[in-house]
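Ticket #324: bound-state structure for succinic acid.
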Amino acid sequence: MARPRIALLALGGTIASPVDAAGTGATATLTADDIAGDLGMRAAVDLETRTLRMLASSNLTLDDVRDLARQIAATDADGIVVTVGTDALEEVAFALDASLAGDRPVVVTGAMRNVGHPGPDGPANLLGALRVAAHPDARGQGVLVVFADEVHSARYVRKTHTSSPATFRSPTLGPLGFLVEDRVRLPFARRRRPAAVPFGDGPLPSVALVRVTLGDDPALITAAASTGCAGLVLETFGAGHVAAAWLPALREAASRMPVVFASRTGSGELYEKLAAFPGSERDLRDAGLIPAGDLDGAKARLLLVLLLSSGADERGIRAAFADV
Ligand code: SIN
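RESOLUTION: The complex was predicted; output attached.
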């Protein structure tokens, strides 16, 4: 039987960043081929390696992510594994999930412990990601994140801890599956994926993300909306709440650009109609803001970037967020 052809695309991050003898000085220097090393899985798959970037993920741009999405779309491999820094991993994975069509497995992974530290987790995470990318059950599941022997949907996963190797969690949903010995277990299939919103050509629009905090000044919204951005995302309290004093500035911003609201809690879905106090979810809708459903602020921002870059009008933007 032919071995599955897997493309390994490397962007940098801790998985590519060995430390010196003192355990410091981490910087991305390892290529995709270095990272794959002599992993046992190499014999089971036909592996093509490509080093696309050698960066800390905080230094990646959305142009880098668009280039990654295009390289994935162009490869004819049976499955794709992407290695990237964990800081922005959830955003890279979500942007791929939201923009790529098709059933081919795309699996994103990285590491929390560098080579040179005791117990680096990169090799095990990469091995797991390769196993999942080569597994038939991973087809049609959207982009998956494999970390610490768990399989998460890019749609829900978040980095939740600064240093733990088990940092990736899906607070709203839990993992879709897990790895045990050499077996991939995916008991929970993703039933539905919204239509892909591919990156458009040309410069990518700027979308600002503002998080509300207790006693904040609504001038922050006016300032953010005046940066030349094409859209705004607001991370609200709880199920979609702000101080009533923010409403005039939000109303004004929403009359000029799409303003999406998400919850700053990081899990669960926004309310639609429960509260009636000033600054409630109803007031935000009445002010023209677009609810992000259960997307967090960072994911809602990426979806809005994709929609604006693909030329969606207000109706299209509202329809896409109603279908997340
Ligand atoms: C990064 O995101 O590039 C640094 C941190 C990491 O990979 O864990």
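RESOLUTION NOTES: The first helix runs from residue 32 to 36.
TICKET STATUS: resolved
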